[in-house]
Amino acid sequence: MTHDRTADRADGPYSVLLLKPDGYLLPGLRAHLDRLIERHRLRVVTRYPVVLDARDVEDVWPKLAGGAYPVAHQLTLHYMTGGTCEVTVVAAADPADPADPADPADPADSAGGPDSAGGPGGGGAADVVARCTAIRTEVRREFGDTVFANRLHTPTEPEEIAPCVSKFLHSLPDGLPHVRHHDPGTAPGAFGRLAALPSGEIRAAALDVWRRQRRDGWQSFRLDTPPGAYATYLLPGDSHSIDYGMSVIAELLPHLTLDQIITAYIEMDVRGESRLYGGPAEESTHLADRITAAGLFARARAVRPAAHRGPHQPQHSHQPQQPHRPA
């Protein structure tokens, strides 16, 4: 496989595989990515390392620059500008391969139009994007730590693919100006208390996340909540933006700080759940119901009693912290 920075730009369509800083440094991942590119019948058009700045990040994810997703914006900025990335622009290795007919069950092939595979011959823009998306899925499944650090990006939305290719195939290598695609984002974003936070406070909280992660690892993120007979747990799986989800938690549990809310989201993603509240059964269940009514996933359940202390174990004299009641 040729890894030549000089791009053969006459034979598209193209897409982009962007190794993020944690992916670039992970031993073995770059070689594995090469194998996946070959397995999915793609070829490398150009490849080069790059250190992104804030404007580059907003060019790749323009919806972050619109203001609706301030937490995702700052977390992504600190993540993507924190080290070297590697850009790989790819095209189909088999643009005229008759063994790759259109698959009517494949959304990429059945989309129709000039950019779909459109029958024997494959290799259309939708087909290249579908192959890159499959590679991204495999990399994140095998190497990703959390949704906040998932090693590899590739554009998937039709309106973001061409600007991303232009950015990495022409603008950065050739020093040409880049016209950012306007994307205000359609998913609900921050609202209420979270949306009113000063940008400096959000920036500081995001920076603290990455400092803590580098120092102690993702497993260190645990939300410390007061004990109770029942507890409300935040669960993963909803499709909302993290800014919307965090805003829901901020409104329902107004005593939680932004640091605590981000911690809960990371813990949920890493461990499969995060305990938001401990208290009576009725209050825990009511909180879980309100969270799910807002479109997130949550459940209330009885907390298993602590193991019985032996006669030589020390007694703790401090009084348990009283739980904060949900709003």
Task: Give a quick set of tags describing it.
327 residues; alpha+beta; four-stranded antiparallel sheet; 7 strands
Walk me through the structure.
This protein is of the alpha+beta class and 327 residues long. The protein is built from twelve helices and seven strands. The chain has helices spanning 21-25, 29-39, 54-60, 70-80, 107-110, 125-143, 158-174, 192-195, 199-216, 242-252, 258-271, 281-293; strands spanning 14-19, 42-50, 85-92, 152-153, 230-235, 274-279, 297-302. The strands form two sheets. It has a four-stranded antiparallel beta sheet, with helices on both faces. Strands 6-5-7 form a three-stranded antiparallel beta sheet. Helix 2 (29-39) packs antiparallel against helix 6 and helix 4 (70-80) packs across helix 9. The protein is elongated, with a radius of gyration of 23 Å. The model is unreliable at 1-7, 97-122 and 307-323 (pLDDT under 50).
